[in-house]
């Protein structure tokens, strides 16, 4: 996997931004394994107080309906995957901010962060100018300190539920095609 990840920038250049890279597919498969329902339920619901919420920016909640709307607006699949990565990794960081190191969910979220870091290396070559303007603007808002005033309370499990649903929408078909 390390050798493959090192060769990925060249593969991306040859395949173009539209194709899901093999590394993306492998990493998202590992993420999907880590985001199984039982694990999300245990680590993001049972290990938190009843009705516990995390304060996130409005833009850090990415639902399948958002993806459908952006697709209908002709945003490219590669740009949507780039958006999903930024929103999901930021939401995961929000969850980690509220966890003490001795919390039972700490190691689980640490493993998720490692997978997102590996995926981040995949997207490291992308620049916001390479993706659709609407996506670049959303990514900028997610990482903007000025958007902090637009907050909403969301359950940690709901954030990871959305992460998985959107990931399946965006990576399901491109990664299945590469596996055959």
- What is the CATH T-level topology? Growth Hormone, Chain: A
Main sheet: strand order: 1-2
Tally of individual helices: 8
Residue share in helix: 55-70%
Corresponding CATH superfamily: Interleukin-34
- What structural class results from the helix and strand content? mainly alpha
**Gross geometry:** globular
* Mean pLDDT over the residues: 81
Query: N-to-C SSE series?
Result: HHHEHHHHEH
Binned strand content: under 5%
Rg is 16 Å
CATH class: Mainly Alpha
| Total DSSP E strands | 2
Question: In the residues, how many domains can be counted?
Answer: 1
Low-confidence residue ranges: 1-20
Reported for the largest beta sheet, the result is: 2 strands, antiparallel
Protein name: IL34 protein
Keywords: Signal
GO cellular component, one term: extracellular space
Signal peptide: 1-23
Which helices and strands occur, and which strands form pairs?
Layout: H1 2-15, H2 22-34, H3 37-46, E1 54-57, H4 64-72, H5 77-97, H6 106-123, H7 133-142, E2 151-154, H8 156-179
Antiparallel strand pairs: 1-2
Helix pairs in contact: 2-6, 2-8, 3-8, 5-6, 5-7, 5-8
Signal peptide: 1-23
InterPro entries: IL-34, IL-34_sf
Keywords: Signal
